[in-house]
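Hi all, a correction to my earlier message: I attached the wrong file for Sigma-70 family RNA polymerase sigma factor. Here's the right sequence:
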Amino acid sequence: MTINKQFKSLLVHCITEHKENVYRLAYSYVKNSEDALDIVQDSIQKAFSSSGKLKSAESMKSWFYKIVVNTSLDFLRKHKKIQVVDENTLESYQPGNVDVYQDIDLERALDELPTIYRTVIVLRYFEDLKIEEIANVLSENMNTVKTRLYQALRMLRVKMVDESLKEET
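and the right structure:
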């Protein structure tokens, strides 16, 4: 019973410490604040219900991120046909508005990447996870993660160059 209480305490601490990052990770998949909050809530529930599957407290952060990624992907599969966009995102795409988000080209280029590549980019550069942690989150080999990261960066570079060429003409 003590181990269970200790685990729950560590999990609550992990969730509290990384709540903004976890929300941002879920949002990067669904692009809707309410859905991202639902995903975070479902992920917390899944983490508490599957507490016996965690082998060590040291890997709790990557274990919880894995739950969030999988819950996000499940959500996307279930809601494949429906594309809900919140008001802030909708306003940023309307013509004539000044870009509030200066890296809108990067955001669009990221959105166009296949999920396996976007996930690696988000976890590495937005969530600041190490390659080893990303491999744990995605249940992949470290070399696979490195390859995907390299390929994703190359695809982003090509997309960003194409966008800048379009703007020049």
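Sorry for the mix-up. Residues 92-102 have pLDDT under 50 and may be disordered.
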